[in-house]
Amino acid sequence: MTLEPLINYFENLLPLNEEEKSIVEEAFKERRVKRRQFILQEGDICKHHTFVVEGCFRMYMVDEKGREHNLQFAIENWWIADIGSFYSEEPSRLYIEALENSIVLQLKKEDQIKLFDNSPTFNQIFRVLTEKALVSAQRRILQNISSTAEERYLDFLKRHPHFFNRISNVQIASYLGVTPEFLSIIRNKIAKS
């Protein structure tokens, strides 16, 4: 199993002792996911926190008109899950789809509870993860209500330059809340200035 990236990720937050490393090995399960395969679909209950070892994912919803709205992307060393469904155990309104062939490490809720029970270090680590996710969500909400589409695009470029060879302009436009045609206009305007 490919645990080294996850162990390194955790140790960048807090050092792990050998016992904690072995707890991680027991708790997480490796899964290989093919491009266009789902790890969550609308109506399912989200059963895992997913850590991306290799690959790229998107989390999105489909509105009543059939339009897709990307909420999150995840690449190596990122987490992805429908947190609301995971904790409430209610059906999800979201999809999580692999955009590339991928390798992930998944943690079930009951195994997460065991992590917390067996080591306070994991309580601290997951608290930090939750805080980071909350800060990111808050930043995105503020940006969506107070920034122009061009400002959102420039911010996306600045924060996530590593996405541009991996995610289509259609996906980026959906994430920014604009049409692909409008994104093209924005990109042309930026290129000319």
UniProtKB/TrEMBL annotation:
InterPro entries: cNMP-bd_dom, cNMP-bd_dom_sf, RmlC-like_jellyroll
Highest taxon of the lineage: Bacteria
A Pfam cross-reference name: cNMP_binding
Residue ranges occupied by any Cyclic nucleotide-binding domain in the UniProt entry: 12-110
SUPFAM superfamilies: cAMP-binding domain-like (SSF51206)
Protein name, as recorded: Cyclic nucleotide-binding domain-containing protein
Organism: Chitinophaga tropicalis
Organism placement in taxonomy: Bacteria, Pseudomonadati, Bacteroidota, Chitinophagia, Chitinophagales
